[in-house]
Amino acid sequence: MEKTFNLILTGVGGQGIITLLQVIDETAFVEGYDVRSSELHGLSQRGGSVEAHIRFGRKVYSPMVQNGQADLIIALELLEGLRESAKAGGKTRLLVNEYLLPFIGSPAKEEIVKDLNKVKSELYLVPASQECKDKLQNDVVCTLYLLGYAVGKGLIPFKKESVLRAIKNVIPEKYLDLNINAFKLGHD
Amino acid sequence: MKKILLGNDAIIQGALASGVSFVSGYPGCPSAEIGDNFGKIAKENGVYAEWSTNEKTALEAAIGASFSGLKSLVNMKSFGINVCSDSLLPLAYTGTKGAMVIVVADDPSCWSSAQTEQNSRVYAGFGHIPMLEPSDPQECYDFTKLAYKISEEFNTPVILHTTTRVNHQKAPVIFSEVKRDSQPKVGNFVKNPHQFSTMPPRTLEMKKELLDKIKKIKQIAEVSETNQITGGKSKIGIITSGISYLHVKEALEFLGSTCLPEGRDLPVLKLGFFYPLPEKKIKNFIKNLEKVLIVEELDGYLEKEITVLAKGANCKLEIFGKSVLSEIGELNTEKITVALAKVTGKKFVAFKTKKIDLPKRTARLCEGCPYWYVFPVLRRVAPDAIFGGDIGCNMIANLPPHSLSDYMFAMGAGIGISHGVSKAVNPAFVEASAGRQKVISIMGDGTFFHSGIAGLINAVYNKSNPLVVILDNRITAMTGHQPNPGMGKTLMGEDTQELSIEEITKACGVKNIKVLDPINVQELESTVKEFLEKGEISVIICKRICALLAKRQAK
Ligand SMILES: Cc1ncc(C[n+]2csc(CCOP(=O)(O)OP(=O)(O)O)c2C)c(N)n1
Question: ipTM for the complex?
Answer without folding.
Answer: 0.96
